[in-house]
Automatic annotation (TrEMBL):
Keywords: Membrane, Transmembrane, Transmembrane helix. This is Major facilitator superfamily (MFS) profile domain-containing protein. One of its GO terms (cellular component) is membrane. It is a multi-pass membrane protein. Residues 16-430 form the Major facilitator superfamily (MFS) profile domain. PROSITE patterns: MFS (PS50850). The keyword Disulfide bond does not apply. It is found in: Membrane. InterPro entries: MFS, MFS_dom, MFS_trans_sf. The keyword Transmembrane helix applies. The chain crosses the membrane at residues 12-37, 57-75, 87-105, 111-133, 177-197, 239-259, 279-299, 311-332, 338-359, 371-392, 404-425, 514-531.
Amino acid sequence: MSFLPPVQFGNYTRFVVLLLSILCLTFVMANTLALNFTILCMSEERVEYENGTTEKAWLFSIVAAGTLVGTFPVMRFTATIGVRNLFTIYGLITATATALIPLAASMGYGWLLAMRFLEGFSMAILFPVMGAVTSSWSSVKQSGFYMALQSLCLQFGAIFTMPVSGELCTSSLGWTSVYYIHAACTYVSFILFYLFYRNSPRKHSCVSEKELTVIHHGRKDNANTGKQPVPYKAVMTSLPIWGVYISYIGAGLGLNLFMQFGPTYLNKVLHYEVSNTGFAGAVPYLVACGSKILSGPISDYASCISQRARIIIFTFLSQGMLALCILVMAFLPECASTAGFVCYTLAITSSGMTSVATIKSAQLVACQHIHFVMAVCSLVNSIIILVLPPFVSLIASENTHGQWSTIFLICGIIVAVTNGFFIIVGRAEPAEWTKAKPTIVRNNQIYPAHIPPLAVEEMLKEIKDNEDEYAKSLTVEKAVQKTLTVDRGVQVTPVVERYSICPHSLIEHPTMKFLIVLFTASAILLVSVLSETVLKPPYLCVDYKCPSGYECDLVCGCYKSGFMSSVEKEVKRLCNGTIDCDEGQEYFYSTTKGATLGPCADGKCSEGSECGPFHFFCVEQKNN
């Protein structure tokens, strides 16, 4: 934004950068998720193919193939053309591909597959950008919080896509409008990002000297933000980094299982309506945002325990809870739809803390080379996305409860084992290969420090003898030091060191007070909204007893034999004459609408009612 006068955002320009990066990352994520939901609407219209199950699976898997291909340009060009240019290019690709999906779907399956490939190609930039922006723009002390906030894009993508898609799919605008809205939002976001973002805070006209000092406070020589060649061999033979990769297999599997197939699971297995599926699918991601926002500051400031201990604790809280919830879902009975939704919510909520667990470990260990480590994590994620749809289609071809139990059992074991390995080998301190090697400059040539001492002395002597060259070198050195030190005229109080979030001082932290109040208010709001939408009565009568204000009533409709939760879906089909039930369903009825019924004892029912294969429900009492 060189054509505008510099504006200092109260020494918080780094958070404006954070906001823009979250916005762009969210829409990159949301664009790939749109099909996961709209495919439910498309299947009800005209978009069908010869082998529906296989071809739908490929529409999911091709995203991973695109991400695999897109990862290599990220590795190659991030350090050369910079995050600003590369991220914008990838953003324009996903926006264009998303806008063309309705046209591609009408032209044929191959065209639709190509657009999905381009969306996946752009997904490759997701994790490297998180790492690179955090490394360049965040202070060391706030890196966990900064990374956690950026990774909110994984939740925000679902929060935006699911309810918006649910409403638009069932509206007169149709499923095609979902893609046009996503594409428009993506274009606007990336234009704003390109205009404002700079690859280094030193190059940004809106960054003050005070803010620059805060950003660089606590960085060691190894935290050099300049362009340095990646020590590929050292990185790929580092055991802590391999711990991150292995752990991400489990984390990525759990996240993608619910992100890709969450709407299908809610609709086909838990039997939520399409309109309710969008909202119900978004609720866990809203809760996950709260857990992520709270966990970031705690991870950064809880200095009463070591950094590694914090990472291990959050790994257990995130991935351990994820594995536990998935395993519980594997053993839940078929009628426990409410318990299934609770476990579904807890699993997604706990996975939100991955950014302050394994991902933070990667950022602390790899430092300036984090973009490469995150690119490999993106590669791992791509392989998971590639393998997961055929795996789910193979095991859960009919989307029955038993088939999904098998999927949950396998995935739960994988998540537990992979993260157990990380707990053993995970670290939280910079690796040796991140530390800058001392260098000697002679005639604009850089010489490594392993030159024999005698040769070094000779070079220094020659440089000193050349007064002009020595003066230039000294000026450059002082300029570098000045960018990393506080001006004597500017007093900076590093807020990152003022608080220690431990049990005795947690409530004293003003940021934590605000976040706790915000999270509590959000939870209350969600519960109240859920009570009026997704979890709205009728309740099942328990021993013919209902909550206060409700009475036991027999509702007319069709239901699958032995499957309680499906009655909730069919309850709207009231008895208006004869109902033709689908195959495998039974018919139940009441001859008097609103009659209060008791148990069917010896074939006797309440007046105006008949005995039959029925379920009891609680309905609101009517005022006479």
